[in-house]
Amino acid sequence: MHPRNIYNKRLNFNALASEFPEFKKHTTLDLKGQVIMDFKNIEALRILSKILLKKDFNLDVHFPPNGLVPTIPLRLNYILFIEDLLKLTNHNKCVKGLDIGVGASCVYPLIAAKKNGWQMVGTDINAESLNCAQNNIKNNNLAHLIEVVKVKEETILEEVLKQNSVRYDFCMCNPPFFGNPNELCSQLKRKSNRSPPKNAFSAEMHEVITIGGEFTFVSKIIDESSEFQDRIRIYTSMLGIKRNVKLLLQKLHKIPAIKSAISTEFHQGNTTRFGIAWTFDDCIQLEQLPINSDKKEKCGKPYVYNIKPFVGNTEEVGKQFTNIFNDLQLKHTPVKTDNENVVVYDIIAHGDTWSHSRRKRRELAHSSKCQSKTFIKDAINNNKDSSRVNGEKSAKRKCDYVMETVKRVKTEENIFLACTLIIHISSELHIELVYVNGSGGKNACHQILQYFKNHLKF
Q1: Sorted alphabetically, which keywords does the UniProt record give (predicted)?
Q2: CA nearest 109: which of 138, 66, 152?
Q3: What is the pTM of this model?
Q4: Chain-centre distance for alpha carbon 263
């Protein structure tokens, strides 16, 4: 959870039940006399969100009976993320934001306006949702800061941005996550390696399902942002499915006009959501935002390898690892330590240069051999050998392509793997490789450690 989130500590249900009778009737006492609530009870969730908005933001918000019940800690996490992004813009004037898919509760604009005094425009395709949102704005006397606009389903940004020449500081979006009811049902089912959903599900279908799911929806925002560019200084969106983060970042990195793009995570209880942000403004360096600074501590156990007995010194160890780093074209930065028997490197890989390395060397050797006229002449007289020649030429082209790809990827911002190598030198050599991040995932970290095992000569 964001460090400034007021819900960082567990909610005091005892105090809430004492202050709000409407909440108390949805609670019970456990064996220790503590007040607990049933998160599977939709009405209890609805009341909890209502009283948190009232208690912490002085907002009176109505949620439609069958509509989406917003979890307030998550919504506040997203608002705080945008606050951090705006600090990078050096913009001290009135902030103007655009909420794509404002929904019936209008919760993001209400919190943003009440907490920060931001001017907000919310868009939606559903007339009933907009009517409810308008009533929530009116009931909280925030019409001077919040406007809601009905837009067509065919476009997302175009309709509202072409109405006037207003320049927005940011846009935000909590898109429908799923592409069809089957996807929704599969996500709601318990998976063997995960805890079951803690909260009851409550939402209208149009609030959680859209054609193509969140990937298609956010891809459309990206495409339209390329047309309007600096009309919005920072574009953002929330995501509910982790795999889409990588796919959408890849799409963003392919657009030359985009100056920077980042992702983050929103943690609240057992729920994790994801966020992405991008900008066309070269004065805004989104990478400077210190997000997920505790990522290393959350990476789990390191990959470990021991060589014993070990006879050697720090210089020999450093030389062998440096040679491997150079062979694999890994960016490696030594990290100072207080212990002379501990060597630490921060490692960044921009592509997979270690997989099947022995096979690649063999293919290159064979392809060189194919250049021999005698070899080619003998191969022509034998269909089987002829096929091998063609295969080796193809292999050479493949290897050349791999090497060119590695060179190209090194100039890009995409990180395939970032990890930390920790080497303890004593009577044995203890190697730890800690995964940090990167599109290659933890499997890439494991593969590099296996490469070390095969190539270290102690």
Answers
A1: Methyltransferase, Transferase
A2: 138
A3: 0.62
A4: 4
Are 121 and 261 in a shared domain?
A: yes
- Residue 271 is assigned to a structural domain of this protein: yes
Spatial distance between the Cα atoms of 273 and 265, rounded to a whole number of angstroms:
6
pLDDT at residue 367, as a whole number: 52
pLDDT given at position 177: 58
Report which secondary-structure segment, H or E, holds 455: helix 441-455
Nearest of 266, 233, 293, 232 to residue 75 by alpha carbon: 266
As a whole number of Å, the end-to-end CA separation of the chain is: 45
CATH, residue 246: 3.40.50.150
Same-domain pairing of 246 and 344: no
Task: Extract the residue ranges of the chain whose pLDDT is less than 50.
Answer: 184, 188, 190-197, 200-205, 207, 292-299, 368, 371-412
**Alpha helices of 6-71 — where are they, by DSSP H?**
13-19, 21-24, 42-57
Residues contacting residue 436 through CB under 8 Å, at least 6 positions apart: 295, 296, 299, 418, 419, 420
CATH of the domain at 305: 3.30.310
Read off the tokens for 233: 């200084």
Q: What b-and-e string marks burial along 350-380, b requiring 16 or more CB atoms within 10 Å of the CB?
A: bbbbbeeeeebeebbebbeebeeeebeeebe
Are the C-beta atoms of residues 105 and 61 closer than 8 Å to each other?
yes
What pLDDT score was predicted for residue 458? 75
**303 phi/psi in degrees, rounded to 5:** -85, 130
Residue 14 and residue 35 in contact, taking contact as beta carbons nearer than 8 Å: yes
CA angle 105, 109, 114 (to 5 degrees): 110
Q: What pLDDT was estimated at residue 426?
A: 85
Instruction: Verify that 123 and 215 share a domain, yes or no.
Output: yes
* Euclidean distance between CA atoms 174 and 100, whole angstroms: 7
List CB contacts of 366: < 8 A, sequence separation 6 or more: 392, 395
Tokens of 298: 């959350």
Whether 35 is covered by a domain: the verdict is no
Q: Residue 401 sits in which domain range?
A: 359-410
Strands (E), 211-320: 232-239, 260-268, 271-279, 303-307
Contacts of 174 (CB under 8 A, 6+ apart): 78, 101, 103, 108, 237, 238
DSSP class of 397: H
Handedness of CA 398, 399, 405, 408 (dihedral sign): negative
Do 214 and 343 share a domain, yes or no?
no
Note whether 270 and 375 are same-domain residues. no
pLDDT of residue 199: 53
Cα–Cα distance for residue pair 91/54, rounded to 1 Å: 30
